[in-house]
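Our preliminary data section would be incomplete without showing what the modeling component actually yields. Below, a chain of 771 amino acids is followed by its predicted structure, encoded as C-alpha cells that our downstream tools consume directly.
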Amino acid sequence: MNAQAAIGHTASSPTRAARQRHQGHRPPAKTFPRLSVLVACLLPVFAQAEEADQTLEAVTVRAEALQERSSVGSREVVTREKIQTFNNFGMTNAYQAISLEPGVDVRHNDPTGTTANYKIRGRSSRGHALILEGLPFKGIGIGQPIQDLVDMENIETITVEKGAVPANGSFGFGNLIDMKFMRPTEKSSATAKQVAGSHDFSKTFVRLDTGALGGSIRAFFSASLVDTDKFKGFGKGLDRENFSFGITGGSPQGVEWEIFGVYNDEERDAYKGLSYAQSTHLGSNWKQDFNRSRTGVATQDINYYAYNREDYRTTTILGKLKIPFGQDATLTFRPYFTNDKGNAWAGSSQTLVDLVPRQNVIVESLLDRDTFGAVLEYEKKWQDARLNVGYWHGEHEPPGPPTARKARDTNLNFVGWANLYGVGKRYNYRAPYVAFSKTLDRTVIDTGLKHMSIASAKFVSYDTTGISDVSYEQARKQASGVLFTLPSNTHEIWLPSIGATHHVNETSSIKASYGRNFDWPEFGWASSAMNYFRTFTVASGLAPAVAEQRLQNLWAKRIRPMESDDFDLDYHYSSDRLALTSSLYYKRLKYVGTSIYDPTVQLSYTQNSGEARSYGLEFGSSYRASNKLNLNLALSYSDTSFTSDVQTGVNTVVAAKGKQLPDRPKFYGSVSAVYDLNGYRIAPVVRYLGKRYADVLNQYSVDATWLADLSVTKGVVMGPHKLQFSLSAMNLFDKKYISTISTSDVNTNQGAPTYLVGATRSVFASAQYQY
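Predicted structure:
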C-alpha cells in the first residue's frame, strides 16, 4: 500500500485548502468550454424547428420486459426514461434515481445526493450494495462514495433487488442496486450538456459515440465536471472530475465482448449534524455546521470545516467475454478491477495515540486499496428450461477498517499514529453456484444454490511508539514490535433459493419465492480492537499475550456475516393503461451487527449476534389517464424490530423486542405524475416520510413530513439535431426537516443521535444538445 504524503505537505491537505478558502480564494474552475455559447448560437435555428411528436409515453414504476427471467425475489427496474424525468437535478447520484420505488427509503442530506443514504425494507447494506454491470467493483470501508461514481447520463437501467437474490443474479452483498451502462450507439452521435443551479452548482457533461467502427466494434467516451458549494455552512459540497468509456464488439461466430472504465476524482467538505436540542428549533439552527474559521481553542477547532473533509480518486475497469459453447450454450467471463486512493480527515474529541488517550486531535485516514475478481458462468438453454453453473471469486485489500491513521493537533503538528496495521492476507470471497429454471405451461419455476465462503483479512497491529511523520511503508519499518494479530477467519454460508411465477392470464401473474441472503460482517470491529487491547492490558492488567488471545477469540466467534431468510409474495397486473404490483414480504435476520454486552470480557461492543425481523407491504402503480397524463404511486409499510431484548451493559437490558428500530419510518411513499402541456413535460413529485424514532424504546421521535419536487422539460427536434431544456426544483416549498437520524440500533438516549437536516430548496436548469 502506498500511503499519501504528510497532511501538511500535500496539495490536498487541510492546510492548503483552509488557507485558500479562508482567504476567499477559489481555484480556477475546471471546465470544458461552456455550452451556453453553443446554446445561444443554436437557439435561433431551433426556434424554427418542428417540435418533436409530443405523444406522452408512460413512465411506469415497472419494466417487466427488462427483468431477468427469474421467479426468485422482488425486483424493481428503473428505466432510462424515468431516470431522466425524475432524477434531473444534477444527474450525479444513483440513490436519487431509485427514490420513487416502493420499499426504497432514500434521504437527501444535500442537493447533489452525494451524502444521501438509503434503506430498503428497513435496512441498508454494509458491503457491496451498489454494484455496476452485476459486479461488486468496490471494497468496503472508507473511500469514494459509490453512489456518485457514475454519471446518470451514462446509465440505461438501475435494478433494485429488495428480497432474495437468484443464485446466478447480481453479485454483491445485502440488498443490491445494480447499474447498467448505456451501450455505445449504432450510429455516431455527440451529446453536450450544461447544468447550473443553486449553491453555485455547475455540471458540464459531454459524451461521444463512435458508431460502428468495423468488426462490430462500437465505443463511447464521456467526461464531466461538477462543482458546487455546500448548501449550509462553509466549504465545497462537491468538486468532481469524471471520465468514462465503453467499448463493445463481437464476431460473426457469435462471440461478444465489452470493456467499461471509469475514473473519478472528487473531494468534499463534510456536513455537521445537529444535537437533539438544536433539532427541536430548526428555524434558528437550520444552518448550523462546521466552523468557518479557526479560533485557537482546540475544543472548537476540531470542528473547523477544513479539518473535516474527504479527497478520493477511483479507477475502475470492467469487462465481459461471451463465447458460444455448443448448441444453445455460452461461456461468459466477467472480470473487474478497482483502485481507490485518497485521504479523509475528521476532528475527534478523543482518540488513542500510541495506546494513550489524546483529546482534540485531527485524525487522517490513508487509503490505497485494490479490489478485483471475476465471474465465470456456463449457461445452457432448452426450449422450456435453462441451466446456469458458475463461480465467483473476489478479493480486496483493507481499509476497512482503515489500516493507517495519523493524528495531529489543531495546529496540524504531528502527534502520533492512531493505528498502524500490516495486512498479511486480503479479504477474499469464493462462491460456486448453480441455478435451474423450468417452464410448465403457465408457471415458471426457478431454483438455485450458492455456497459463499468469506475470508477476513489478516491484521497485524504494530506498536507505533516513536514512529515519526512518515509514509505507511516507512512507518512499518520503524515499528518497534507487534502488539497483537487478528488472523484470517473463513465463514461458510449456504444460500438456497426457490420461486414460482404463475401467469393467471395475459395481464396478471402471481409470484412466490424464498431465498437466503447475507451481508458483510462487522469487520469495522478491527478499528476498535486497539481500544479493547488497551482495556485488557491497562485497565484489567492482563498480560499482552492473554489480551491478544481474547481479541482473537472475539474476532473468530463474534464477527460473522449477517444472514436473512427472505419470503416474498407478489401480484403483478399490466394492461394498456394500468400497471400495478403489490408485494407482501417477511425477512428474518440473524447475526445482526449491533452493540451488545459480552459478559466473557465485560465489554459492550459491536458484534454480529443480534436477531431481528422485518415485514411489510408495498404497492406500486402506474396509470395512463390520457395521452397527456400519467400518474404513478408508490406506498410502503415496513415494520423492523429485534426479536428479543438486548443486553447493552453489565446491568442494562434494553426492552427492544417488538419495538421499531431507530430512523425507520413505518409508512413512506410518493405520488408522481407526468403531464404534457403543449410540448412541455411537467413532472411533479410529492413524497411522504413517516414518523421515525430516535431510540429503540420508541420514546423520542421526529414528526412525519411532506416534500415536493418539480421538473419541467422541453425538447425540440430538427432532423438529426435535438435540443432539450430542463428546469427542476428539489424541496420546492423549502421545507425544513430532519432527513437522517444517525444513531445505534440499540440507542435509548434522546441526546445520543446526530440529526442531519435535509436538503434545502435547490433549483437546477440545464440545456442539452445531441446530434
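The mean pLDDT is 88. Residues 7-770 form a domain with the Maltoporin; Chain A fold (CATH 2.40.170.20). Preliminary results of this kind motivate Aim 1 of the renewal.
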